[in-house]
């Protein structure tokens, strides 16, 4: 009889223990579910969840994973917002830049439509219209390049090439204009320097800097181009004899559409240096500038060695 009572007692105790364990884990699961729902609700509402980090428990480990997931999603959201703001800024800048030549072209067309205009005046306005059309075409081409660079569409096709080839292509493009202004272009490049870059785009970057130097170098001035190397980079140096760049503006000149108030009368859009910087930095290089007005400016293009 006593054994029956003992067995019954043990069965009862076991049942009570199982019931207690069941209640305990149900409460734990319920608490965890509520906490998980709270975190997910905060994430859905774009609030910063209050994560309870206890890495030595199962709850803590899951919370760590959720916190990491939140950080990743939050980072993607922030990046998406930055991309959206960048695109809005780009569209705004494009609209502003296109507005002026488009308005001028429309005005000239209205004037040319007059029947009583003298032939000489008509030719004058036709030339002005052609100039605005060329400016608009140049602007659109530059904006396409800029947008491709900013959105990461361009894929640089790097190859091993002599730095002298890049310089030669840039110089060939400015030669006629330099001759018209009687600019003395001096070239001093070390032989045997090879760089790893996209030839087409890097030549474009160097040309933009040469073109910039040409614009701000006065008649009968000079431009010195040299190439050397250090341990990591080939250095293309382009020095002009223009008015120079004030120190307060040297950090701004590579900005999109930035133009100093001192050069408003010089033709330009403020895109060339911006493009050059993005092309070179996109290939692991960088551009710096030295200037002490009124003794000209020197741009140093650093391109990774091959």
Description:
The structure is a single chain. With 306 residues, the chain is an alpha+beta fold. The chain has helices at residues 2-44, 58-112, 119-150, 163-180, 199-216, 272-281, and strands spanning 159-162, 184-189, 194-197, 222-229, 233-240, 286-291, 297-304. The protein is elongated, with a radius of gyration of 34 Å. The N and C termini lie far apart (95 Å).
The number of distinct helices, counting runs of at least 4 residues, comes to 6
Helix content: 55-70%
Number of strands: 7
List SSEs in N-to-C order: HHHEHEEHEEHEE
| Strand arrangement across the biggest beta sheet | 2-4-5-7-6
Shape field? elongated
- The N- to C-terminal Cα distance equals 95 Å
Task: Look at the helices and sheets and give the structural class.
Answer: alpha+beta
Mean pLDDT metric: 79
Low-confidence stretches: none
- Strand residues, percent: 5-15%
**Biggest sheet character:** 5 strands, mixed
**Rg computed from alpha carbons, rounded to a whole number of angstroms:** 34 Å
Descriptive tags:
306 residues; 5-stranded mixed beta sheet; 58% helix; two-stranded antiparallel sheet; single chain; 14% strand; alpha+beta
Write the layout of secondary structure elements.
Blueprint: H1 2-44, H2 58-112, H3 119-150, E1 159-162, H4 163-180, E2 184-189, E3 194-197, H5 199-216, E4 222-229, E5 233-240, H6 272-281, E6 286-291, E7 297-304
Parallel strand pairs: 2-4
Antiparallel strand pairs: 1-3, 4-5, 5-7, 6-7
Helix pairs in contact: 1-2, 2-3, 3-6, 4-5, 5-6
């Amino acid at each position: 009889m006593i054994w029956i009572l003992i067995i019954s007692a043990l069965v009862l105790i076991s049942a009570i223990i199982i019931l207690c364990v069941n209640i305990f884990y149900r409460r734990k699961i319920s608490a965890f579910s509520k906490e998980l729902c709270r975190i997910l609700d905060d994430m859905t509402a774009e609030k910063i969840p209050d994560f309870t980090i206890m890495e030595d428990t199962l709850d803590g480990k899951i919370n760590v994973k959720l916190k990491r997931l939140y950080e990743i999603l939050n980072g993607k959201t922030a990046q998406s917002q930055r991309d959206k703001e960048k695109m809005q800024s780009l569209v705004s800048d494009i609209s502003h830049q296109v507005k002026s030549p488009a308005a001028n072209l429309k005005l000239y067309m209205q004037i040319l439509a007059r029947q009583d205009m003298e032939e000489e005046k008509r030719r004058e306005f036709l030339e002005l219209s052609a100039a605005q059309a060329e400016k608009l075409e140049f602007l659109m081409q530059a904006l396409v390049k800029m947008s491709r660079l900013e959105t990461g569409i361009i894929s640089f096709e790097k190859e091993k090439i002599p730095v002298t080839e890049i310089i030669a292509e840039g110089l060939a493009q400015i030669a006629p204009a330099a001759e018209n202004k009687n600019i003395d272009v001096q070239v001093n490049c070390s032989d045997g320097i090879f760089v790893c870059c996209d030839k087409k785009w890097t030549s474009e970057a160097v040309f933009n800097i040469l073109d910039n130097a040409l614009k701000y170098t006065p008649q009968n001035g000079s431009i010195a181009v040299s190439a050397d190397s250090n341990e990591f980079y080939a250095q293309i140096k382009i020095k002009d004899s223009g008015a120079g760049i004030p120190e307060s503006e040297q950090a701004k000149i590579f900005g999109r559409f930035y133009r100093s108030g001192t050069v408003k009368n010089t033709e330009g859009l403020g895109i060339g240096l911006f493009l050059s910087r993005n092309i070179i930095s996109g290939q692991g290089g960088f551009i710096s500038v030295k200037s002490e007005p009124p003794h000209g400016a020197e741009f140093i293009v650093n391109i990774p060695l091959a």
